């Protein structure tokens, strides 16, 4: 099946895909996908921890691996991508108009965070696991969050008219993807918004999610409360995290989405017999969502690629990682302790 990536090339003015430079494309995973084989049973799951519970050494290892990806040269031949970090962001950029405001928001980002974790490990020698930012603990004092610590975290808020992060390990980082569908050199921008964190990331909002028993009732709540809140609490107005298309440019994106994934996992575990493989929701964003966020219209070829045979998201829904990892269906990632993903949250 043709990747969505190819369907968007002419619209995004991106150069032809360079198949000879596959980047992160583990041969074993590809063979398992093509042959329909199962991976080895998950007997030793990777253990993901909260950022604030990592030791300073563990934090440094993660930050160093992130800086490694940000400095490692691009390999895919995609226009505008200078580093492997740019290419990781590009995967999100190409998929933005089909993985937000839909039932596939959580599973696609679950796989995307997994891709990020594998890149840290296979390309930068990272030995740990993907940490998560337990945002609810910082509501009321986002600026004091340990993820924004300039010494042991990812630096603090943006400063000046351009909102550039001016301290910590990312002070001199240049991003190349964005804003929106453009490719320009710019700094990492943050504009912390404490109020939006209080409104969207509170424990009461999380508790509300757990009052619903069906995925069809919660996927919009996930997307419009703690998901949006986490992005906006860091990015505010004009920050990298609130550029929907290129938000992975800020490494906090992956800690935030790991936390969202953790909460979804907890929701699944309340009643695994009925929730572990419960998926639903529209598979194309609403017209208002597309228009208000300046996203590309969803093409017919993209819709056909979904594999849902309709407008509802199903377990057969295809998720595109444009050759950075083999494409998978939502079914493959529903259970994080299944044969494929094999990780857990502590």
UniProtKB/TrEMBL annotation:
Species lineage: Eukaryota, Fungi, Dikarya, Ascomycota, Pezizomycotina
Name assigned to this protein: Tyrosinase copper-binding domain-containing protein
Keyword Signal in annotation: yes
Domain Tyrosinase copper-binding residues, every copy: 250-261
Domain of life of the native organism: Eukaryota
InterPro entries the UniProt entry points to: Di-copper_centre_dom_sf, Tyrosinase/Hemocyanin, Tyrosinase_Cu-bd
Annotated Pfam families: Tyrosinase
Methyltransferase found in the keyword field: no
GO-annotated molecular function: metal ion binding; oxidoreductase activity
Key words, A-Z: Copper, Metal-binding, Signal
Signal sequence residues: 1-20
């Amino acid at each position: 099946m043709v990747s969505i990536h190819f369907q968007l090339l002419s619209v995004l003015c991106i150069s032809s895909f360079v198949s000879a430079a596959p980047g992160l494309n583990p041969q074993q995973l590809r063979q398992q996908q093509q042959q329909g084989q199962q991976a080895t049973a998950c007997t030793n799951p990777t253990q993901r921890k909260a950022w604030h519970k990592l030791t300073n050494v563990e934090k440094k290892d993660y930050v160093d691996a992130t800086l490694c990806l940000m400095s490692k040269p691009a390999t895919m031949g995609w226009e505008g991508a200078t580093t492997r970090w740019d290419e990781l962001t590009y995967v999100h950029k190409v998929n933005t108009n089909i993985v937000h405001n839909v039932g596939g928001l959580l599973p696609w980002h679950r796989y995307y965070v997994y891709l990020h974790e594998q890149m840290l490990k296979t390309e930068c020698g990272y030995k740990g696991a993907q940490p998560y930012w337990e945002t609810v603990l910082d509501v009321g004092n986002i600026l004091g969050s340990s993820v924004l610590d300039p010494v042991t975290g990812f630096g603090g808020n943006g400063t000046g008219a351009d909102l550039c992060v001016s301290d910590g390990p990312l002070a001199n980082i240049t991003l190349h993807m964005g804003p929106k569908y453009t490719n320009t050199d710019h700094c990492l921008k943050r504009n912390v918004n404490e109020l939006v964190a209080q409104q969207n990331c509170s424990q009461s909002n999380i508790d509300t999610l757990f009052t619903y028993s069906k995925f069809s009732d919660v996927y919009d709540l996930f997307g419009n409360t703690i998901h949006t809140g986490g992005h906006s609490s860091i990015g505010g107005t004009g920050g990298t995290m609130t550029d929907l298309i290129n938000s992975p440019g800020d490494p906090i994106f992956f800690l935030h989405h790991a936390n969202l994934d953790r909460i979804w996992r907890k929701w699944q575990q309340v009643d695994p017999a009925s929730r572990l493989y419960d998926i639903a929701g529209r598979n194309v964003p609403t017209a208002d969502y597309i228009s208000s966020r300046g996203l590309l219209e969803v093409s017919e070829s993209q819709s056909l690629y979904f594999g849902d045979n309709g407008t509802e998201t199903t377990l057969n829904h295809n998720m595109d990682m444009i050759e950075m990892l083999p494409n998978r269906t939502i079914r493959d990632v529903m259970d994080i302790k299944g044969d494929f993903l094999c990780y857990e949250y502590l």
